[in-house]
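User: I'm writing a tutorial on reading structure tokens. Could you give me a worked example: one chain, its sequence, then its tokens, then a sentence or two explaining what the tokens reveal?
Assistant: Sure. Here is the example chain.
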Amino acid sequence: MKIAVAGTGYVGLSLAVLLSQKNEVMALDVIAEKVEKINNRISPIQDEKIEEFLQTKDLNLKATLDYKEAFEGAKFIIISTPTNYDDQKNYFDTSSVEDIIQKVISMGIDTTMVVKSTVPVGFIKAMKEKYHIDNIIFSPEFLREGKALYDNLYPSRIIVGERSEKAKEFANLLKDSCLKPDVAVKFMDSTEAEAVKLFANTYLALRVAYFNELDTYAELKGLNTKDIIDGVCLDPRIGDYYNNPSFGYGGYCLPKDTKQLLANYENVPENIIEAIVKSNDTRKHHIADQIAKRNPKTVGIYRLTMKADSDNFRMSAIQSIIELLKQKNISVIIYEPTLKENSFADCPVIKDLEDFQEKSEIIIANRIDHFVRNVSEKVYTRDLFVRD
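And here are its predicted structure tokens:
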């Protein structure tokens, strides 16, 4: 079977690699460098399993810049293009998804589109009405950055937003390509599937915000945060996972998904959803205030990435903290080895680690590793478990 995948970020590339084990997959992207890397079996994103599979597995996978080449003859076209949140409109920018839908319609081909991009509740229904089509399904993804292919190989669940034979066929495609023997598969209407995605990510954001607020309390009261978290999380209903304090949630999904869900709550009574969004801002202000109390002249930012084993720093909490520190007239320097530029957010990027350590009075690290252990007396972090 030929399958097309539009967009080769964490979602799209992990699915393309997964499905190309047993199917012909054409991956479409608009960035020539990414297409070239994939065709040379080099991963354009940091993901250990994707890198391993591209190097060692016999994959029927080709990347292209030509949408007609990608879509022609494809039984399924998976749409996994980015949908950033527009703070002005209080809505996801779904233009990249609609662009693919329009291209498919213009080709007049017999295919089924499966939207894997995160969209507002009611999006698929609106697209069906707007374009007078019925060949479009929503299927949410539940992947971690840096472990996207692993999470597709061992999925927590497979959800498809339609009750039909083509929905079952798509679910079986995913199921047949994964390594988990008993995967929970659930079919529902598209609008409920869209809600599942937003509510799942907002719960994860709630959990991050909860343990961050616990940490803020313990820090200001002079208590041992780790002891409290260990004691709380021994309750099996709470669980000892996803509980490592940070500077705030960030990345591709949680910031935008929480805001979109809150926007979907218009005219619906709520308190918790809004509080989750506000809590993240409160946490970042607290971190910046804690640094400012020490009256440093120069603060070093160790890595812009939002978590361990990731090369992504889009919407990372540390970026907000940089801006807050600048507003307090504190000089900021940055060490981020993935950056080629000499500056970021109008702050110097120091390429040499020793030079960076020497120039920094305080080093802020959202996640620590062995590269800053030698200057631990300078490091401010809330990373208690050295993970996540």
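What the tokens reveal: Residues 83 and 118 are 7 Å apart (CA to CA). The domain at 2-188 is CATH 3.40.50.720 (Rossmann fold).
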